[in-house]
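Figure S7 source data.
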Amino acid sequence: MRLCVFPVAALLAAALPLAAQSTATTADLASTVARQLPSLTETYKHLHRNPELSRQEEKTSAYVAAELRKLGYTVTEHVGKYDDGAQAYGVVAELENGPGPRLLIRTDMDALPVEEKTGVDYASTVKTTNAQGQQVGVMHACGHDLHMTVLLGTAREMAERKSQWHGTLMLVGQPSEEIILGARAMMADRLYERFGRPDMVLAEHDTNDVPAGSIALKDGPLMAGANTITVVIRGIGGHGSAPQAGKDPIVLAAEFVLVAQTIVSRQIDPQQPAVLTVGTIHGGTKNNIIPDEVTLGMTLRTYSAAVRDQILADISRTAKGLAEAYGVPANLMPTVTLGESTPATINDPALNGRLRASASAALGKDHVLEASAVMGSEDVGRFSLDGKIPAVLYWLGASDPGKLAESRTTGVPLPSMHSALFAPVYTPAITAGVTAMSAMALDLLK
Ligand SMILES: [Zn+2]
Ligand SMILES: [Zn+2]
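Tokens for the predicted zinc ion complex:
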């Protein structure tokens, strides 16, 4: 599929020979990005065919690093330290171009344990062993291959246009976004102390909710903060025929799941978005045995730290209160453990306004849409140091415009991110992605 937006910018430039520098630059971008498209398509298909799971991005990061080195960037690999001390596969590529601001552009690099079912000729057939020792299919089902491709295309535009900007470009290949540990690992490895603190942070994420060829931006909250919670409900096991002799943690866990659903619906201000989902529940070994404990895995999504803290307290109180009501002994009260977390993604309004203007000049206003906030999460917010550094994440359109329109009419959703059927319409997505990101970077560093 070809994108039909560029003639608008080209026409504008032709009709207005005295047009601003940015218009001339964006008209020129259309042709240079088009020239890059064949090699970027190869890059995209190569990355798509060779996905690697979170924490395992060895070949992917080496590929990204090698491509950036070829373009003249100073590249450092293996940036990042996980909490368990393991080294991460983070990549930092810098291009210094005189005095000026430092702009960080981030791509994620990891894939998912999903067996691809798209049927495309560049589909992944990769299988690997996950952290639990299971054999799983691996797929770029979240489009991080598209993000890397767009970053590499933008890297080339910026390297070939050094006369049009000044400052320092800091490109970051981040591992382990899917397990929200990668940004944290890179920051723990003293990213800004070693390479310099950026003045601005920019990132994108693809989505089927925006047509390929367009992007969507939004001020303020875009993606929720996430917390992983493990609740262990304990009881006293025994024979399934004699419940009176024990304390059944299965019944208690079942009640906890239902009461926990009233935390958001009955105890939190309806104006405050929040989602609490129990994603796993494990307990017991045999039909006629009451087990000693049941383990529940939960995810919490919120936009406000106060709401998050209130819900976490409500979870603990609910679990303990129910256990007491069931007569569970004091030494067997439930335990609530917090796992990984990530802050909400909050877009800086001033930076967002500037990006919207440069993207509109490059893609045409009709291809720069207003984004909606979602309850999904990202860890890119860590690079903003809790909002101290202006940061924006925007959506990169990935769907066939006709199919998206049809899906909105019928109400049948398109395959979403993380689906085995997720297949971005890559030609217009890469073209719009590189054009928009290059126009934004040129404007921010002009
Ligand atoms: Zn994902
Ligand atoms: Zn993703």
